[in-house]
Design brief:
The chain is α+β, with helices and mostly antiparallel strands and 70 residues long. It has 2 helices and 2 strands, in the order ααββ. It is globular, with a radius of gyration of 13 Å.
């Protein structure tokens, strides 16, 4: 939604639906821009940082963060 901030809510909701559809026991890594993660998770991340989440009972649960050094 870099070009049109009006799509932010719809795109974040699409990410939540996709997360909810990951089968139990399956691991996925999603790579995106900080602005997308911030809108999705409601918080920002540092450069090289990853947010680890789980979908539980209709909500996104923040499990922690990982920092990658370059």
């Amino acid at each position: 939604f870099f070009d049109d901030r009006r799509t932010e809510a719809a795109q974040s909701e699409a990410m939540r639906r996709a997360l909810a559809n990951i089968p139990a026991g399956r691991f996925e890594a999603w790579v995106t821009h900080q602005v997308n993660i911030g809108a999705f998770a409601g918080e920002g991340l540092a450069m090289g940082e990853a947010l680890v989440v789980r979908h539980e009972r209709g909500r996104v649960r923040d499990l922690g963060r990982l920092r990658f050094h370059t």
